[in-house]
DNA sequence: GATAGTTTCATACAAGTGTTTGAAATGCAA
DNA sequence: TTGCATTTCAAACACTTGTATGAAACTATC
């Protein structure tokens, strides 16, 4: 393999264009024009358009997942195999939020790309996301160890809600800013992380009889 | 206007196909074949493909919004202009969840269509969703009246998280079922509603010093 | 039952898509 | 240099897409 020049030029151009304009209206011709390479180069180097998109997404998401697991492992080792639930949740939602939020003008191309991927959900990306379950199971396991009294159902719901808050906040960050007339500050990412972690922790630790709603569920 | 037959056949066929196969790979030709009408009928009756999609989505979402506001208004009138926060949240997420979850084999076409719309987010639908802010403001107002001691920021974050949990649970219902190996039961919709309402209520009412994470946020 | 307005239909159009092809250029080893 | 594999390139291919057209069929009114 000579120098990868064409290959990485395509990857960079594609990520930039998808980040800026979404998957919907970026064609291979747009990408090769931006990269300054020939149209056939995409199929030569990647096989197909979908495989190009998949490679972009896989690269970024394994980076995020590695970061998540690194934080999780560090926390569990520090706690002798059992980490506080807040720390686990922070390892779960922190990397994603840090990767996608922050001052808009200094958001990396990678971050903007991942936001697009989260909003538009194109087939090759959906396929990859479906394989993420094993990764989530590791977090479910850590949460179970952290909260041995909680039922599996409660653990899964807590996990689900934590991801919900993080992803939805990313997806709808523009709308939240507009709705709150700028009062909700999404540029201080660590504050957002703490808000999400805080609520998810409450969801997971609240006594079953603390609220009418919760007890109603638990009583079934 | 004669009999609307063609027009409503197109609407029904389109909704069914979009619900089953998503927006990505349903063409006008698929729709007219399913509806048993001529290809040109779509442009004659709706102007364009996008306007057809928009009409489908608008119809369904104003129905949901009307139901939400009906519940909200009833609650506020019963409480003399101030409703309990749980009831407000239930009015916010209840209609959507009831419309989109429930036993899979008895989910209406409309429900499956709305799930698709929530997952795929195609341009004409995104445009409509952007106009939903005014509608959400009404809920923000009711929540402020219900919790006069809470800051606007907290209110908006609570609203955001409530919607996050509802929508994410709908979008990822399949994954949650798989992840939890069926332990999280999404068929009993009212239980799901109560879980979401319960967590959102905690998020909105928890004392600022109840958890370390929350106090950290409030201290800024 | 003729007429005007609406609706349907087969067909064509224009444009854009990802992909393939086969030859030309390039790089590299012997 | 020669020979071989890799990479680039322009061009064409094969299709699909949404939309437009103009004639035909229909419907209701007078």
From TrEMBL, chains A, B:
Pfam families: TetR_C_30, TetR_N
Domain HTH tetR-type, chain residue ranges per copy: 4-64
Domain of life, source organism: Bacteria
DNA-binding residues: 27-46
Name the record gives this protein: TetR family transcriptional regulator
GO MF: DNA-binding transcription factor activity; transcription cis-regulatory region binding
Classification of source organism: Bacteria, Pseudomonadati, Pseudomonadota, Alphaproteobacteria, Hyphomicrobiales
Keywords assigned by UniProt, alphabetized: DNA-binding
PANTHER family in the cross-refs: HTH-TYPE TRANSCRIPTIONAL REGULATOR RUTR, TRANSCRIPTIONAL REGULATORY PROTEIN
